[in-house]
Specification:
This protein has 117 residues and is mainly α. Helices cover 63% and strands 0% of the residues.
Length: 117
């Protein structure tokens, strides 16, 4: 898979802005899928070959991260996602449900073993 920032310094300013927008979009969407249980870290790596998220994978997602994510989806007018994030914030589901089930090192070690086979 192509590195999303390959040749970044050689890009025009407009292309850099577009690349940054795409990276940010991917990170927020991946984090959203993780916190809602639609995907796991492992699924994201398997599907994309990359690991791009908008929160720290080694700890439970913080309230500020959720608020930032909700702000992003407000800007993109994806209000269903905003409502889901709002519900997670309100009910503190992120504390009841272990969002970060495995540390990033465990995930990468698993992938390294799998690729060596």
């Amino acid at each position: 898979m192509k590195d999303p920032i390959e040749g970044f310094n050689e890009m025009s300013e407009i292309d850099r802005i577009e690349a940054e927008r795409k990276l940010l979009d991917t990170a927020f969407r991946n984090s959203y899928h993780i916190i809602t249980g639609k995907l796991t870290f492992e699924n994201i790596i398997e599907e994309t070959g990359q690991f791009l998220i908008a929160h720290n994978p080694d700890s439970n997602i913080k309230r500020d991260d959720l608020i930032n994510m909700m702000g992003y989806f407000t800007e993109t007018e994806e209000y269903e996602k905003c409502a889901k994030i709002r519900d997670i914030i309100k009910t503190n589901k992120q504390k009841k449900k272990e969002i970060s089930t495995q540390g990033i090192n465990k995930i990468f070690n698993k992938f390294v073993r799998r690729t060596k086979k």
